[in-house]
Design a protein that fits this description.
Elements: E1 4-8, H1 15-21, E2 25-29, H2 36-45, H3 57-65, E3 71-76, E4 106-114, E5 120-127
Length: 133
């Protein structure tokens, strides 16, 4: 049986109680903000080579700007949603200076599938070596 890894920065997270009874639960604790580069290095120690992350725009922005995302799958729903406070695929602080343009990540389309009910499944490789002339 594989292990379930739970990463938290909450001292009272219920995972600590679950770990006492389940040998296949591993809790990785960070006392402050989670250091994702460090976390991914730790995961390699457990022979984890691939991680699927299903998250919202805030975490997506953190991981993308740290160069930790190398592949993206996006399902586009046939629905228009808007509003200045509506979350997007990549949230977080806006890029405001020329120096911050290094955080732009080009995508290379790997696959496009038309799903039922007009949904699209788009699969991209992330090009993490952004070059600014």
């Amino acid at each position: 049986m594989g292990k379930l890894f739970i990463v938290t920065n909450t001292v009272s997270h219920p995972a600590f109680d679950v770990k006492k009874d389940c040998k296949n639960v591993e809790v990785i604790f960070y006392p402050g903000d989670i250091d994702f580069k460090d976390l991914f290095k730790k995961m390699k120690l457990y022979s984890i080579e691939c991680v699927t992350i299903e998250s919202g725009g805030t975490l997506n922005a953190v991981l993308l700007r740290q160069g930790l995302i190398d592949h993206v799958i996006i399902v586009v729903a046939p629905l228009l949603v808007g509003g200045e406070n509506t979350s997007s695929l990549i949230d977080g602080p806006s890029l405001k200076t020329e120096k911050e343009l290094i955080h732009l990540k080009a995508l290379n389309l790997v696959r496009c599938d038309i799903l039922s009910d007009s949904y699209l499944r788009l699969e991209y490789d992330v090009i993490n070596e952004t070059v600014i002339d």
